């Protein structure tokens, strides 16, 4: 193929990649029935279905209210009509819009790019049609916070991009690709505070990771702190994934969330085990150890696999920071001394932050936490006509 034609194709595909949008359902943890949109920066046009209602100007706001299977649009106090869908479309490059739920009242947020609002099963469905880079900037800041090394932000950007690509059609039936909750990825605002995140997202634009055995997008799991040892995926989700095996991680053991302690009444502990798992309390041997458990290395079950008590169930019921704990009785309580925060599978965020501060690159960080991976680019998928995701259109 002609060299200039190849260059042209690469340039065109690069533009296509950078221009891709993704639709994110926001405020999904709340049933919103009334929300206001107000001007913050740039310029937005207002549409009720296909009819334009002019621009959203400084000091103006619009209200969108659920009315059965329609939505009511108001501009200030003026009723503009009932519609299937209300849209806000930016007409300038640098644009920010403020969202303020009124029923129920929830903390306001700011986002970039376009919005669509329509009636859902429970309240309004509020969708942010956002560029991939703007989305990832908001995700990385929501998940990782500010003040970290840029190589950590690069690692988080790549893993967040990979996770999004893997699950991009999770909510397609609801009219968007992903939601703003942690089971997709936290996305609670536009990127606000940390310019290094914007730089990290741009520097890794289009890059994601695949496993080298099946050539599939990896399960891009991450958590706050593994407590010194990552967890096997089958301990958490009953699925063994070869590149997510447990291993020792010394990079996080002296960080903020490496250790924790909790006291639980013996009565509550005992009741949970007996009522839910028929713990053999009449057996003197088991009665003697009901409050005593030691984990030097991560385990999947409490005391013994034969009892069938998954540690993940104890974690969820008692709201523990992790399943990586040992316990002993003290007075009327069971004292739990634990390590780590989160499920422990995949990237340990505090470990990755420490690795970055010691001079390791994002490629080294991700290769440490995900065994047998390859770094790929959108271009390879597009060049071979294998578009890696399906974006829902407004």
Automatic annotation (TrEMBL):
Residues in Sporulation stage II protein D amidase enhancer LytB N-terminal domain copies: 121-208
Annotated transmembrane regions: none
GO biological process: sporulation resulting in formation of a cellular spore
Coiled-coil portions: none
Protein name: Sporulation stage II protein D amidase enhancer LytB N-terminal domain-containing protein
Organism this protein belongs to: Brumimicrobium salinarum
